[in-house]
Amino acid sequence: MKTLRSFVTVLVLGALFALIAERFAGAPAVATTPDPRMIAMLTLGDCVTCPGDLNGDGLVNSADLSVLLANFGDNCNIDSDGDGFTVAQGDCDDLNPNINPNATEICDNGIDDDCDGLLDFADPSCNDDDNDGIPNNLDNCPNTPNPDQADNDQDLVGNACDNCPNTVNINQQDSDNDGVGDACEGSYCQMASQCPQVPNAQAICAGTQCQYACDVGYADCNANMLQDGCETEILNNNQNCSSCGLVCPSGHVCVNGQCVLQCPSGFTNCSGQCKDLLNDASNCGACGLPCVFPNATGACVNGQCVIGACAPGFANCDNISANGCETNVASSTANCGGCNVSCNLANATSSCVNGQCVIASCNVGWANCDGITANGCETNLSNNVNNCNACGNVCVPTANVTSVSCVNGTCKITGCLPNFLDQNGIYADGCEVFNNPN
Fold first, then answer.
1. Of 262, 242, 268, which Cα lies nearest the Cα of 250?
2. How far apart are the C-alpha atoms of 15 and 64, rounded to whole Å?
3. Can you tell me the distance from the alpha carbon of 296 to that of 96, in angstroms, rounded to the nearest whole number?
4. Distances, alpha carbon 226 to alpha carbons 153, 186, 201, 233, 234, in Å
5. With bands split at pLDDT 50, 70 and 90, how would you rate the model's confidence at 227?
6. What gap in Å lies between CA 107 and CA 128, rounded to an integer?
7. What pLDDT was estimated at residue 75?
């Protein structure tokens, strides 16, 4: 044991002197970075758990100056070559930064570059699945033959398997699964300014996808936003009124996104109906303006309300349209049966009944003995021998009477036969006294 320890001591000191000589031979006076082998030799301790360390001294076999004999030092957790991996983390050569678990296996150099325990073509990464002569770990399309390894967009994915060969898209994202990557369909983004500008729409970047909102009055009716944007105008489009596919009915047009009735020339749309405002009594001069008059029907002439016809028994005798047919010609004695038709019958009090002048009553001493209304109470009962005091009361000559008269409505004897006298003055007995001249 003492001999072995002396042997080890000699080796350590020899190595130490070799390192010192190496440092001072043409090197700067002060070393700025300690040599990892110096650290390994001067650090006490052990590292029996390091993989690939036959002697358990903390140095893997490939980096150990003495594979069989343990050196002093504990290097399991020291990243000696600065490649980001320590021996404890699987670095099988911690003195070579090109060898570590994250390295690419070089298939023909006889070194386990990626520290997986498999050399060269024994390592699966050195397989050539597509048989194009390029190992999988170096092939930019490991499952698609491409011996030329062309990569136009330099995104490390070869043209042969790149879903956007001219646009960088390392993750090969294809949201719609159409075989064309989002990056060259214009839908991939990190900010809205990266989204393609399309007509009549505003772009937003939602996550990593370009989305679009159509401008007011437009819609994407052909579902091809990236090609022509919101291509369809929908405010005045009869086939797409306010939304895609909403067709206005026959006779209607789209106005501000609403299907409205289209009226022929000379007519106006009044609440969905075409009206002639020049001649429509319900919409005279304007929609909803009716021609209404008292006791009359209204008419519209050139957009102005006028009286069309008076109701039965009424007339517009003052010629004022506003008060309609104001006169009741069925009962007005001043306008009986018509304007200015006055009931003014002779010797009578007149009235108007159903538009006809009638005699309400005759004046005292008068009568309508001929039954004709128009001439009123034409008969004077006080002096008419045929209608004395009453119609049909005729003063007939009585005995020995030659003539009679009507005086104040009473029959009187005005003449007797010769030699006869009306001595008693009684009409009924005539000229009752005989006067014999002899």
1. 262
2. 12
3. 116
4. 22, 7, 10, 17, 19
5. confident
6. 11
7. 60
Q: What are the C-alpha distances in Å from 235 to residues 27, 125, 199, 228?
A: 84, 62, 16, 18
Tokens (6 digits) for 95? 């003195």
Helix (H) or strand (E) holding 12: helix 2-24
| Cα Dmax for the chain | 232
Judging by DSSP bridges, how do beta strands 327-328 and 314-315 pair with one another? antiparallel
Query: pTM for this structure?
Result: 0.41
Alpha-carbon distance of 135 to 137, in angstroms, equals 5
Spell out the SS3 assignment of 243-269: CCCCCCCCCEEEECCEEEECCCCCCEE
383: closest CA among 366, 397, 399, 369? Answer: 366
Cα(262)–Cα(423) distance, rounded to whole angstroms? 105
Look at residues 335, 286, 285, 343 and name the one whose alpha carbon lies nearest to residue 314.
Answer: 335
Q: pLDDT (tens digit, 9 = 90+) per residue, 240-271?
A: 999 999 999 988 999 999 998 889 999 999 98
Spell out the residues 6+ positions from residue 168 whose beta carbon is closer than 8 angstroms to its own: 153, 154, 155, 183
Q: Which residue's entry shows tokens 């110096």?
A: 38
User: CA-to-CA distance for 195 and 204, rounded, in angstroms?
Assistant: 8
Q: First CA to last CA across the chain, in angstroms?
A: 229
Sign of CA dihedral 172, 176, 178, 184: negative
| Distance in angstroms (rounded) separating the CA atoms of residues 222 and 233 | 12
| 352 vs 335: CA distance, rounded Å | 9
Using alpha carbons only, how large is the chain's radius of gyration in Å?
68
Structure tokens at 182: 């989002």
Count of all residues that appear for the chain in the document = 438
